[in-house]
Amino acid sequence: MKRARPSARAVGARLAGLRQKTLFRIAAAYAVGAWLIIQVAATVAPAFGLSGWFLRAVILLAVLGFIATVGFFAFVRPVAGELATSERPAAGSRRWRSAERC
Predict the structure, then answer these.
(1) How far apart are alpha carbons 24 and 78 in whole angstroms?
(2) Which pTM was predicted?
């Protein structure tokens, strides 16, 4: 069976949701931080006599951490202002009244 391709509108809505979650800023900040750590490790490793596996491990951890961070922010973390049904405040509570204003 062929899998149906998502429409352009659905893809656009998904990207808008990811922008609202600040996923792109988080991913860029993580990429810059990981790059900096890799550069420091590449510079310091020879001075301490660390073998090549150390730099490979640092790069692998940076890549896996990037995937985990993007996955968390894209699929697990709710959009700002969005509450899961179990987290919804009780009707009449102060938190409920402030949510009503939004």
Answers:
(1) 15
(2) 0.58
pLDDT digits (tens, 9 = 90+) for 76-99: 766 555 555 555 555 556 655 555
Task: Give the other-Cβ count within 10 Å of 100's Cβ.
Answer: 9
Of 97, 62, 102, residue with least CA distance to 79: 102
Distance CA 64, CA 77 (A): 18
Annotate the chain with DSSP letters as a single string.
-PPPPPPHHHHHHHHHHHHHTTHHHHHHHHHHHHHHHHHHHHHHTTTTT--HHHHHHHHHHHHHHHHHHHHIIIIISPPTT---GGGPPPTTSHHHHHHHH-
Using an 8 Å Cβ cutoff, are 62 and 37 in contact? Answer: yes
Pair 96, 89: CB distance under 8 Å: yes
